[in-house]
Amino acid sequence: MLQRCLIGLPGLEDKVSIEGGREIAMAASKRPRSPGVLKSIEVSTKNDPTAAVKRRDGLKRSLVKAAVTNLDIGSNEEKAYATAEEIMEELEPLRPKARPSSDGSMNAKWAFVFTGKPSVGMKLLSTLSSLSKMLTFLIDFEDTFLEIGDEQSTVRVVIAMKLLGIPVELVVLSKLLPDRECKHGTMMSEKMEGISFAGIQVPVPEILQSPRTMEITYIDEDIMIARTAGAEPHFHLRESPCEQDDETCDVPAPYFEEAREKFGDKIAQKLLDRSLLSA
């Protein structure tokens, strides 16, 4: 469980100091902040909710454009992702949810868009994506997404593929717990609980058994930003607020649909590949 709590603004540490968990505190405090962050804080503190909403919507649109719709293979990825990180830093202080870790809007299906330092799981996704391009006769990478459910207490990372034409899924199941000592309601702990391949349970590697901490720095009806213990940003695009198996739910996710129009049926793989370009 995370032993400290950020104040919810990148680079600022809560005055409540609890032993342990200092890595995220140091990483966040040393990370350079965009000058625009100060402007965002100023807007958010003024008694003008309309201005804050307009500012937030504008930043969100710019973020999606930088990290998704305007990022083409062969373009200057490094510059585009640096821009995306700056926008995230401006956007985080304007989050509309007071306590993201306990907000029901987390329960949804999310696409991978942007990642900082890749985790072991993200490296696995990258490997599978690369193999599917080299060994098209063997692996067909079809879909991947992150699904949060059970009142934001479980996380499923699903990788759907075909092996020799046979549909299979690799599913990683983790448990989410909010940090009750974090008065800002942003900190959570995640622990992997199981892995299944084609419906068969496989042992969880020891390297993946330790809990990891994260801060949900921003969430709304379209996007989510989470930061790891090293303050690395992970940007997710809401694919759908529906549970994966709920066939009666048909709620559109506008930003994801825009990305689908651009990238087509292989959107999950395209977004994943772009996500890992930033690492």
Architecture overview:
This protein is an alpha+beta fold. The chain has a domain at 96-277: Lipocalin (Beta Barrel), CATH 2.40.128. Helix content is 33%, strand content 28%. It has seven helices and nine strands. The protein has helices at 22-30, 36-45, 49-69, 77-91, 120-134, 254-263, 267-277; strands at 109-115, 139-149, 154-163, 166-178, 187-197, 200-202, 212-219, 223-228, 233-240. Strand 7 (212-219) and strand 8 (223-228) form a beta hairpin. Helix 2 runs parallel beside helix 4.
What is the topological layout?
Elements: H1 22-30, H2 36-45, H3 49-69, H4 77-91, E1 109-115, H5 120-134, E2 139-149, E3 154-163, E4 166-178, E5 187-197, E6 200-202, E7 212-219, E8 223-228, E9 233-240, H6 254-263, H7 267-277
Antiparallel strand pairs: 1-2, 1-9, 2-3, 3-4, 4-5, 5-6, 5-7, 7-8, 8-9
Helix pairs in contact: 2-4, 3-4, 5-7
Largest sheet: 8 strands, antiparallel, barrel
Structural class: alpha+beta
H-E string = HHHHEHEEEEEEEEHH
Give the number of DSSP strands: 9
- The overall average pLDDT, rounded, is 74
Q: Tally the helices.
A: 7
Strands across the major sheet, in which order? 1-2-3-4-5-7-8-9
The poorly predicted ranges are: 7-45
Q: Identify the overall geometry.
A: globular
CATH topological fold name of one domain: Lipocalin
CA gyration radius, whole angstroms: 19 Å
